[in-house]
Amino acid sequence: MNKLLVTGGCGFIGSNLMDRLLTRGENAVAFDNLSRRGSAINAEWLRGRHGSLFELIQGDIRDAGAVAEAVRDADAIYHLAAQVAVTTSVTDPRTDFETNALGTFNALEAARASGRNPIFIFASTNKIYNGIDKPDIVERATRYEFSDLQGGMSEAQPLDFHSPYGCSKGAADQYVHDYHRIYGLRTVVFRQSAIYGERQFGVEGQGWLAWFMIAASLGKQITIYGDGKQVRDMLYVDDLLNAYDAATARIDQVAGQVYNMGGGPQNTISVWKEFSPMLEKLHGKPIPVAYDDWRPGDQRVCVYDISKAARELDWQPRVPVSDGVEKLYRWVKENTNLFE
Predict the structure, then answer these.
(1) 25: which residues sit within 8 A by CB, 6+ positions away?
(2) At residue 135, does pLDDT exceed 80?
(3) Angle in degrees, CA 67, 73, 75, rounded to 5
(4) Directed axis angle between helix 163-183 and helix 103-114, to 10°?
(5) Where residue 330 sits, what CATH number does that domain have?
(6) Are 230 and 298 in contact (CB under 8 A)?
(7) DSSP letter string, 175-207
(8) How far apart are CA 284 and CA 189, in angstroms?
């Protein structure tokens, strides 16, 4: 049976991926240092669901030796381990670089040295497109919009790293892409937009939609940075995993490719002006917020053209943002004790 390794396997996306793989009988192993808030809780959840079938290698992606040992006999690697918050990268850029850029290099080198030519799926980010000043952005009553990219940004959008996080993930993105060209490694890069769903322990600096739900449920302060009109295309985590499955199944055709991976124009929402009515309806009462200045690297609009993924992976988002929001809100309310 093929061995599948999930770095960051106890994080939000990683724990959902591990659960999917183990549920269908795959030989999947998680590699995680359990430093992220909620990761230890997710590990216990996976152990409770799958018992001894759940295997965790507790290690750090910055440790080249530990990564090499974990990767040595893997047939596929889902590289999700990362420092994921722009705000954290600004205050601690060294750790951000070592985790995202060096950690990805460690994983790639381990994959190359293994001699197995494993499939290598990499979770990149929309922040590598951060400096978007063309096409022009227009302001509407509740949102910002592209003036001439109604279908969203394609993979042809020029890269423009902004913030230490954007630089570290951008460097990693390009390393993964180039390891296919230079070494023939079977890599696929997913430049992920706003992913959300169950098992997401959102905090103020990352995972904003989950964080707003958690804060509202616990009566904590919500601060909107900017004006709340920032627009994201939202992708429910199950739809993201469907794309991972599609790329893995088609690896001979799609190795070396890069895909923008988001909800597309049909699943957009502004961070507060359009999301707050949905959240207040679910919550049953108004939710007070404070406003503060824009944060470094915050995009006014990030909406993806996902036609390449649709065409080459035979993939489309299946969960509308309205349904996904309700799913996540129910999970938050049922598990409020986990966030206290």
Answers:
(1) none
(2) no
(3) 105
(4) 10
(5) 3.40.50.720
(6) yes
(7) HHHHHHHHH--EEEEEEE-EEE-TT---BTTB-
(8) 40
Answer positive or negative: Cα dihedral of 328, 333, 338, 340. positive
Among all chains, which residue has been given the structure tokens 């706003």?
194
CA distance 238 to 310: 16
Using one digit for the tens of pLDDT, what is the confidence trace for 26-56?
A: 999 999 999 998 999 999 999 999 999 999 9
Q: How many domains does the chain have?
A: 1
As a dihedral over the C-alpha atoms of residue 48, residue 53, residue 59, residue 65, rounded to 10 degrees, the angle is: 180
Is 165 among the catalytic positions? yes
From the list 242, 257, 148, the residue with the least C-alpha distance to 195 is: 242
Rg (CA), the chain: 19
* Contact between 292 and 339 (Cβ < 8 Å): no
- Structure-token pair, residue 298: 């915050």
Q: Let me know how long the chain is.
A: 340
Q: Could you tell me the two tokens for 119?
A: 């499939």
Tell me what percent of the residues of the chain surpass a pLDDT of 70: 98
Cβ atoms of 287 and 222 closer than 8 Å: yes
Q: Quick one: which of 283, 125, 265 has its CA closest to 206?
A: 125
Crossing angle between the packed helical segments 12-23 and 39-50, to the nearest 10 degrees: 10
Residue pair 161/128 in contact (Cβ under 8 Å)? The answer is yes
Give backbone dihedrals phi and psi of 306, rounded to 5 degrees, phi first: -105, 20
Cα 58-244-301 angle, rounded to 5 deg: 100
Among the options 165, 225, 236, 244, which is catalytic? 165
Range of the domain at 194: 3-339
Is the preceding omega at residue 158 within 30 degrees of 0, hence cis? no
Q: What is the pLDDT of residues 215-263, one digit of tens each?
A: 999 999 999 999 999 999 999 999 999 999 999 999 999 999 999 999 9
